[in-house]
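Z., the sequence and structure:
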Amino acid sequence: MAKKTSKPAKGSARPERAARRTEPVYTVMTFVTFVAMAVGCALLYLDFEEYGKTSPTKENIPALPKLADDSKAVTTPAGRGGAQTTEPATP
């Protein structure tokens, strides 16, 4: 059987729209956020399974060379915003 269509009343200028159910935009945004969080958690779990069991490699830290071998030098503390200076000791 064919659907019956309703015709607008003769006095109205625009026809009535059929009520169409749409989801509110915030419901859609919440769903998209949930999917993104679930995908992120799954990827984090996969990454942990691949790299989480091994410890990082130890890096060799090079020894710093001694810059000054002046054992008689006196170090004066820095003042307000000034740099720390090293002056030779006076006899």
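The first helix runs from residue 25 to 51. Helices lie at 25-51.

Let me know what you think.
H.
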